[in-house]
Write a structure and sequence with these properties.
This protein starts with 10 loop residues before the first helix and ends with a strand. It is about 15% helix and about 30% strand. The radius of gyration is 22 Å and the shape is elongated. The chain has a single domain, classed as Umud Fragment, subunit A, CATH 2.10.109.10. The longest helix is centred in the N-terminal third of the chain and has 22 residues. The protein is α+β, with helices and mostly antiparallel strands. Strands 1, 2, 3, 4, 9, 10, 11 and 12 form an eight-stranded antiparallel sheet that branches. A four-stranded antiparallel sheet has the order 7-6-5-8, with no helix packed on it.
C-alpha cells in the first residue's frame, strides 16, 4: 500500500498560526512576567521624568490574573524604597507609579520634610534625598499614621506635585501590579531604577 502524500499547509495558514502563537506568548509574558509603562507626570522627578518608558517586573511580587484579580504567589513582598506600579485607590482605571515608604504594621510620620517610621528617621538614600511636604489628609503635620495589615504607604519623589498616600490613604497589596526595574527609553536615560 502506498501512503498518501501529506498535504502541505498553505503559506497563509502557516503565517496565521505563527502570528497567533506570537500573540499568545506575548500575552503570557505581559500577564505573568513583564509589562511596559510610560511615565505621564512629574510626580516621580528626578527618578522618573515624563516620557520615560519603564519595564515593570510582575513575577517578583506575584502576577495578578486579569479579570478575576487572584494573585499568584511571588518571591517576596515589596520593600521600603522600591518603586512600584499599582492600581490607584483614587482612580481605579489608572496605573500609578510611586515609591514604597511605609510597610504593613508600621507607624509613619512626615516631620520637617523627612519620613519617620516607628519614631526613627528613615536614612535610606532613595527616601532621605527627598523633601516630603505635609499635604493631604494622611500627611498632616504632627499626624502619626498606623499602616494597616497588608497595606503600604507610598509617596512620589516629587512631593510637591504628587497625589499619593497622603491624599488617598493606604495601598492594598492586592492592587500592586509590579516593581519598576528599568528605564528602557529614551536611550540617554536607560538604566536601573533606584
Amino acid at each position: 500500500m502506498k501512503k498518501e502524500p501529506r498535504k502541505k499547509k498553505s503559506a497563509l495558514r502557516e503565517w496565521g498560526e505563527s502570528i497567533l502563537i506570537a500573540f499568545l506568548l506575548a500575552g503570557c509574558v505581559r500577564i505573568f512576567f513583564f509589562e511596559l509603562y510610560k511615565i505621564p507626570t512629574t510626580s516621580m522627578v528626578p527618578t522618573l521624568i515624563p516620557g520615560d518608558r519603564i519595564l515593570v517586573s510582575k513575577f517578583i511580587y506575584g502576577p495578578r490574573i486579569p479579570f478575576i484579580g487572584i494573585r499568584i504567589p511571588g518571591y517576596r513582598k515589596p520593600k521600603r524604597g522600591e518603586v512600584i506600579v499599582f492600581i490607584s485607590p483614587a482612580e481605579r482605571n489608572k496605573a500609578y507609579v510611586k515609591r514604597v515608604i511605609g510597610l504593613p504594621g508600621e507607624t509613619l510620620e512626615i516631620k520637617y520634610g523627612s519620613i519617620y517610621i516607628n519614631g526613627k528617621e528613615v536614612s535610606l538614600p532613595s527616601i532621605a534625598k527627598n523633601f516630603y511636604y505635609n499635604f493631604g489628609e494622611y500627611g498632616e503635620e504632627g499626624e502619626k499614621i498606623k499602616i494597616p495589615k497588608n497595606c503600604y504607604f507610598v509617596l512620589g519623589d516629587n512631593s510637591a506635585s504628587s497625589k499619593d498616600s497622603r491624599y488617598w490613604g493606604f495601598l492594598n497589596f492586592k492592587d500592586i501590579l509590579g516593581k519598576a526595574i528599568l528605564i528602557w527609553w529614551p536611550s540617554k536615560r536607560i538604566g536601573m531604577i533606584k
